[in-house]
């Protein structure tokens, strides 16, 4: 018995789906050209299912709302969506909330493929074995095998939703899902400049003094040198390339390069710059406005970021480097704001765990008026 359904039509999530569900799951795709706003369903090759034998055993047990005992045969599995033929473009008519439009636009901008509400998961079953309660995550990212649920409700109002997603994780342990709450949505708007007005800021408390930053960068140079020394270099070795991502990485890039050279590791330094939603609000896709001057094919590339947050920029550059033949790609970040991660991206070495506040100083890209400060401080607004 299939337990994953796709609702018919453009039904709002607030409307009960039971009367309009069917045993089929689809992923929306655009028309002949991205942005046409023409939508049709593309069948998924494998919906989440529980075998008929498992459901029969469940019906014999006679316990409503309980999942069959987990075993190799009865454990539900979720196969990945087939490759979508185009990037899906945000269409405000499809979404239940304007925040979902912003998130879809951000994902599309960074080249992350998504489908909107492609899968409904059964959470509770009646005594006859039929599903009685469901949950439908907002987005599925097929390239990362990840579901995203975005909720902008106040934290005290999300208890019911949290319960549903706890059940989803319990019944479908192989399904990866991440919930973005109101605070996460507000952070995204702050990081990517989608707010209409940037709030004025002033320097707050100093979080990392200059000596702390310099000592940690020296330690990162040692960590990175060990990673590079352990990697096979092949028949025609090339020096590793440290690639700074964005103007905010410049100071960290130079200090890290000096630290590596002090330990006898010869490296080249280069930089790449990306467009942003704030700088190009009408653009459909992110672009490299500054590409590396040095070749990347066949060599180890270390992407150097001053701050890694959502992982979207790092994932885009990583894919760009892979397409151009980089032999190995590592990511090194001075500050890691892991709480802001949207997609998982491996970080080879990181300097500090960044608190969930706005930061400035030590060349950081945000609040450039404070970029020349030798320390890192909190920015206070309001």
Keyword list:
24% helix, Rossmann fold, 382 residues, 23% strand, 6-stranded mixed β-sheet, alpha/beta
What does this structure look like?
The chain has helices at residues 52-61, 98-109, 159-171, 182-191, 210-229, 250-262, 312-323; strands at residues 4-5, 26-29, 40-43, 115-116, 120-125, 131-135, 139-141, 146-150, 177-180, 201-208, 241-245, 268-274, 288-290, 300-308, 328-336, 349-353, 359-360, 376-381. It has 382 residues and is an alpha/beta fold. It folds into 2 domains: 4-180, no CATH class; 202-381, Rossmann fold (3-Layer(aba) Sandwich). It has a 6-stranded mixed sheet with strand order 13-12-11-14-15-16, sandwiched between helices. Strands 4-7-8-9 form a 4-stranded mixed sheet. A hairpin with a 4-residue loop joins β7 and β8. α5 crosses α6. The N and C termini lie far apart (55 Å).
Order of helices and strands: EEEHHEEEEEHEHEHEHEEEHEEEE
Low-confidence stretches: 1-89
The portion of residues forming beta strands comes to 15-25%
What is the number of E strands? Answer: 18
SSE blueprint:
Elements: E1 4-5, E2 26-29, E3 40-43, H1 52-61, H2 98-109, E4 115-116, E5 120-125, E6 131-135, E7 139-141, E8 146-150, H3 159-171, E9 177-180, H4 182-191, E10 201-208, H5 210-229, E11 241-245, H6 250-262, E12 268-274, E13 288-290, E14 300-308, H7 312-323, E15 328-336, E16 349-353, E17 359-360, E18 376-381
Parallel strand pairs: 8-9, 11-12, 11-14, 14-15, 15-16
Antiparallel strand pairs: 1-5, 2-3, 4-7, 5-6, 7-8, 10-18, 12-13, 17-18
Helix pairs in contact: 5-6
């Amino acid at each position: 018995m299939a337990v994953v359904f796709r609702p018919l039509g453009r039904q709002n999530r607030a409307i009960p789906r039971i009367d309009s569900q069917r045993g089929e799951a689809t992923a929306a795709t655009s028309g002949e050209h991205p942005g046409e706003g023409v939508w049709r369903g593309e069948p998924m090759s494998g919906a989440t299912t529980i075998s008929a034998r498992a459901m029969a055993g469940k019906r014999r047990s006679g316990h409503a709302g309980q999942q069959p005992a987990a075993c190799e045969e009865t454990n539900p599995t979720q196969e990945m969506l087939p490759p979508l033929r185009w990037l899906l473009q945000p269409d405000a008519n499809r979404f239940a909330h304007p925040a979902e439009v912003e998130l879809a636009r951000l994902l599309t901008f960074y080249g992350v493929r998504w489908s909107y509400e492609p899968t409904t998961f059964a959470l509770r079953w009646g005594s006859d074995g039929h599903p009685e309660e469901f949950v439908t995550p907002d987005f599925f990212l097929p390239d990362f095998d990840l579901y995203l649920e975005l909720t902008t409700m106040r934290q005290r109002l999300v208890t019911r939703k949290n319960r549903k997603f706890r059940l989803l994780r319990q019944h479908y342990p192989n399904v990866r899902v991440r919930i973005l709450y109101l605070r996460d949505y507000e952070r995204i708007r702050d990081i990517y400049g989608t707010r209409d007005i940037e709030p004025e800021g002033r320097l707050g408390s100093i979080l990392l003094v200059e000596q702390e930053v310099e000592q940690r960068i020296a330690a990162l140079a040692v960590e990175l040198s060990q990673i590079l020394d352990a990697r096979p270099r092949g028949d025609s070795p090339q020096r590793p390339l440290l690639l700074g991502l964005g103007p905010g990485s410049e100071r960290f890039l130079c200090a890290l390069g000096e630290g590596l050279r002090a330990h006898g590791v010869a490296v080249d330094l280069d930089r790449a710059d990306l467009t942003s939603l704030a700088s190009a609000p009408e653009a459909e896709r992110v672009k490299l406005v500054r590409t590396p001057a040095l070749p990347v094919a066949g060599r180890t590339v270390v992407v150097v970021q001053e701050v890694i947050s959502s992982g979207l920029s790092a994932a885009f550059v990583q894919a760009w480097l892979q397409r151009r033949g980089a032999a190995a790609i590592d990511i090194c970040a001075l500050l890691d704001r892991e709480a802001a991660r949207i997609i998982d991206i491996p970080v080879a070495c990181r300097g500090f765990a960044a608190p969930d506040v706005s930061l400035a100083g030590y060349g950081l890209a945000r609040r450039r008026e404070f970029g020349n400060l030798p320390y890192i401080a909190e920015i206070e607004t309001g």
